Amino acid sequence: MVRAKTEMKERARALRRAGRTYDEIVAELGVSKSSVSLWVRDLPRPATPPERLHRMREARWAPHRREQAIMRQQTKLAAANEVHPMTDRELFMVGVGLYWSEGAKSKPHRPKEDAVFVNSDPGMIQVYLAWLSLLGIEADRRRFRLMIHESADVGAAERFWADLVGVDVSSLDKTTLKKHNPKTSRKNVGEEYRGCLVVRVRRGADLYRRIEGWWYGIVVEAGRRSERMSDLA
After folding, report:
1. Cβ distance 149 to 109 under 8 Å?
2. Which domain of life is it from (predicted)?
């Protein structure tokens, strides 16, 4: 009996040195926790394994993260409900700002008046296309091209964008493939990565000039508004 107890004690000490917790030793040896504590209490407390630390952190922060996720979703839904059906004027102004933020622009060193919009966000593309329709840009003047890394699922991305804009895949212009650089740690990977869609308006020089003029008008009016607000202050 004494020998068996001694062997059990040595096994408990070996397990403790291997980093096991009291509960794990109790479960493996089938002895009481008080016995384990008596046998191993002189041994230094083992470092908590990284995977167990991760589980502990997750258990601690999981309720907080769930609460934050719910709050974020509630805020987004409340904000979405603040957007009432847009008037044509509102869509017009949104579209001008959208293009001037994300669209191609003529530069002094590279003058090129061409209406080209590039984005990876399907929502941005949908709003831009709605804006083009508001301006009366016919479907036959719109050309679409995919830009994507060659390591991605090109076919799936082409089908996704074609479905989104309502055209046949065969009508897309030739896809531009970006060469894969193994030294670069890319974040835009996985099933959700679909590259960028290029929307070009054929014979778009006049449209580009009007966009530039509209944006200039918005900037001027914003400046006037700021001056009026300063005068009232």
Report:
1. no
2. Bacteria
Mean pLDDT of 53-58: 80
Q: Where are the domains of the chain?
A: 2-40, 88-181+190-232
Give the confidence band of 101 by pLDDT, cuts at 50, 70, 90. Answer: very high
Helix (H) or strand (E) holding 100: helix 88-102
Summarize pLDDT for 139-175 with one digit per residue, the tens.
Answer: 999 999 999 999 899 999 999 999 999 999 999 999 9
Specify the pLDDT at position 233: 67
Give the DSSP H or E segment for 146. strand 142-149
Residue owning tokens 């508001």: 134
CB contact burial 111-150 (16+ within 10 A = b; e otherwise): eeebbbbbbeeeebbebbbebbeeeebeeeebbbbbebbe
Q: Which of 135, 78, 115, 120 is nearest to 212 (CA)?
A: 115
Mean pLDDT of 81-89: 93
Q: What is the pTM of this model?
A: 0.72
Cα 182 to Cα 129: distance, rounded to the nearest angstrom: 35
Task: Report the amino acid identity of residue 5.
Answer: K
What are the backbone dihedrals phi and psi of residue 168, each rounded to the nearest 5 degrees, phi first? -80, 145
Specify the 3-state DSSP secondary structure of 109.
Answer: coil
Whether the Cβ atoms of residue 143 and residue 202 lie closer than 8 Å to each other: yes
